[in-house]
Predict the 3D structure of the following.
Amino acid sequence: MTNLTVGNARITYRTRGAGPALVLVHGAGPGSIMWDALVDRFTDRNTVVLPDLAGSDPAGDDGAPLTVEALAAQVIAVIEDTGGGPVDLVGFSLGAPTAAAAAALRPDLVRRLIPIAGLAHAGDEYVRQLFTLWLSLAGSPEGFGRLGTVAAYSRHFLNRIGHDAAEQSHGFMRPTDGMLRQLDLVRRLDVRALLPKIEAPTLVVGCTLDQTLPVENHREVAALIEGSEYTEFDSGHVLMAERPDEFVKLVRDFLDRP
């Protein structure tokens, strides 16, 4: 694990595999461990880079409110530290606008970009209400985690994995200080001015059953990135858990294009 200081934050990143760099940017939650179940699906041809940004468990900072620009600066610092790019950049949920901002601010560092289940700005009143409700449950870890499970997965997926597995998923979302600041950022961010500046070939991925950041937000991201491609899956928010094989194939096929 490598440690970096970027602005007011101490962040970390891990690398696995060998080959061209593929940077996976996590969403709100404990950090890059959200990718661990899929990392080995890419390491046969890529060096997978797994940053833990401010607000995640392994990182640390001064506790100030987060900004998407600060998170993007952390992604940029990781790319530079691993060799300077250009890299392939994938961002999920909050990581989607973070990765997009990094690609817009430093187009020289990004070869291809894949934002998944993200948003361009916090103007969706449903999202504001949901995240305000989530934050209001900070004093109830069980309620906080249960809401996270319901928001993260589709009804079909929860019924498929069954009660015991659904119960175990609550612990993934814990009301740590960093997690609460990440959720607060979702209510404030706005990258609309940055998205038209993206130069890298971009594939935006939407999830039609997303109850965290509804699919209209994903479609708006695509509309604001000139020349981007867009595809949708019938999935809840955490596409990588619900449709892992299709997700891996999508990413590999897009990155393998000439």
